[in-house]
Write a structure and sequence with these properties.
Layout lengths: L10 E6 L4 H6 L3 H10 L8 E6 L2 E8 L3 H6 L7 H4 L3 E6 L4 H14 L14 E3 L7 H19 L7 H15 L2 E6 L2 H4 L3 H7 L7 E7 L5 E6 L1 E5 L8 H4 L7 H15 L5 E11 L11 E3 L5 E3 L7 H13 L5 E6 L3 H7 L4 E5 L2 H13 L4 E4 L16 E2 L8 H10 L8 E5 L3 E2 L9 E2 L4 H11 L2
Parallel strand pairs: 1-3, 1-4, 4-5, 8-10, 8-13, 9-10, 12-16, 13-17, 14-15
Antiparallel strand pairs: 2-3, 6-7, 7-10, 11-12, 14-17, 18-19
Helix pairs in contact: 5-6, 6-11, 9-12, 11-16, 14-16
Length: 457
């Protein structure tokens, strides 16, 4: 997922808005104008019209579409990547800096293919990075996103806790980060009882993966849910709900992709990544409905549904992270179906009590085409997560405000860190869209990366 060399010969990709189409056609030689008119080119967003020459297409027109059309569909200009013939292309025309950046990133993201199990050829057209943009930064973001997508797309048969640990270790080795892992029964001796309880029924041992990188600057801790497959445990999911559960480690995949972006761009901060990696399986050693678990923080948790396991493993990891409070802590998890009901698959809700963090994320979200929506830590709902016989309930009855009550549950384990944000992501693209093939997808990472300079200044 790289740009063409800046000095390489490249054909012109001439950007044309609908209102400028008539003039653009008038500027073409008669034969090319007739050809373009015959194709029905209307300069809609991402539409391409090749301009024939003696040796094939010598250039092409790229439709910009209307402002409204581009708002309706992110990365719409990236459609051109699959429509153009092989070779290097250079965008020409008057594009805003924001549109240039979105198009450049979208082009690289459109080149992603998951080819581990079947051949999947990417588009052969390559883009020269538009002038004024940081090519290395964009490539690092695209590579981090591809890493996230690969991890999510890999089925649980090949992406269990062992393999997720292996991917994290390779990432650490690449960037000179330190990696350490607490595994199996060592989780009990080192006081991570809920990570152990959730993962103990699987023959694939549960673990806590920790990466550390950087020695100067503000401290950032990323915590990602790493449930590599979720059967629901003894509260077994129906088959239709289990089909996509290879993506239940999407939070960990996203924070690892974000960690790559941060390390590859050499950000001046101290990064820590925590991934509780488990498989929620059914077995004689499964944790049970009605059990009461004691967390690392000492809070007791009544288990009213073993399918609400993600918040349990995150709770121990968050409590551990909070013992060394960073300047900012971010938690990412494919946590609740309630978030999808509220906002659908494209918009990722986040929670924070810090107005500065919220504003920075909202601003960055629009700038990098990574849609977020702030949800409330609604304190009056705290009573819903207090069952009476324990400090906390992992699955409040009633079914209302499920994403909010899950976020409130997690917040109970972060008491020393002043700035905390929790993302309840989906991690999956249900239908192909420009720059986003169907399958695993990173959500929120680009917005977080773009917001960090403001949040951590």
């Amino acid at each position: 997922m790289r740009f063409a060399e800046a000095g390489a010969p490249a054909r012109a990709l001439i950007a044309v808005a609908p209102e400028g189409l008539e003039q653009a056609l008038a500027d073409l030689p008669p034969a090319q104008r007739a050809f373009v008119e015959a194709t029905g080119f209307k300069a809609s967003a991402g539409q391409v019209a090749l301009l024939p020459g003696p040796d094939g297409a010598e250039a092409a027109l790229l439709g910009l579409g209307t402002d409204a059309a581009r708002v309706r569909e992110r990365f719409s200009l990236a459609r051109a990547a699959a429509a153009l013939p092989e070779g290097a292309w250079r965008i020409e025309g008057d594009l805003s800096e924001e549109l240039k950046a979105e198009t450049a990133l979208g082009w690289l993201l459109a080149g992603y293919r998951f080819g581990r199990y079947a051949e999947a050829a990417p588009p052969k057209a390559r883009l020269v990075c538009p002038e004024g943009l940081d090519a290395a930064q964009i490539e690092a973001v695209a590579e981090g996103e591809a890493f996230t997508r690969d991890l999510i797309n890999t089925p649980a048969s090949d992406m269990g806790p062992d393999e997720l640990e292996g991917a994290a270790r390779l990432l650490a080795e690449r960037h000179g980060a330190e990696a350490k892992v607490i595994k199996g029964d060592d989780l009990l001796t080192q006081n991570f009882p809920m990570i152990h309880a959730v993962g103990r029924a699987s023959p694939r041992a549960p673990r806590l993966i920790e990466l550390s990188w950087g020695s100067e600057g503000p401290a950032l801790t990323l915590v990602g849910k790493g449930v590599c497959f979720d059967t629901g445990g003894l509260n077994l999911k129906p088959g239709a709900s289990m089909g996509l559960m290879k993506k239940d480690m999407g939070g960990s995949a996203t924070v690892l992709g974000l960690a790559h972006m941060i390390m590859a761009t050499g950000a001046k901060l101290r990064l820590r990544v925590l991934v509780p990696a488990v498989e929620n399986s059914v077995g004689g050693d499964s944790f049970r409905p009605g059990d009461i678990l004691t967390s690392r923080k000492g809070l007791t948790v009544e288990i009213n549904n073993t399918d609400a396991e993600g918040r349990l493993v995150l709770a121990d990891a968050l409590a551990y992270a909070d013992e060394t409070p960073p300047d900012l802590m971010v938690c990412m998890a494919t946590l609740t179906g309630a978030a999808r009901v509220a906002l659908g698959p494209d918009i990722h809700p986040f929670y924070t009590d810090d107005e500065g963090v919220a504003q920075a994320l909202a601003t960055a979200s629009g700038a990098v085409a990574d849609p977020l929506w702030r949800m409330p830590f609604w304190t009056p709902y705290e009573a819903k997560i207090e069952p009476g016989i324990a400090d906390l309930d992992n699955a409040p009855s009633g079914g209302m405000a499920g994403s909010i009550t899950a976020a409130l549950f997690l917040r109970r384990f972060v008491t020393e860190t002043k700035r905390f944000a929790h993302f309840d992501i989906y991690g999956w693209q249900p239908a192909a869209a420009p720059a986003r093939p169907k399958g695993g997808v990173g959500q929120g990472a680009r917005a977080i990366l773009a917001a960090l300079p403001e949040v951590l200044k």
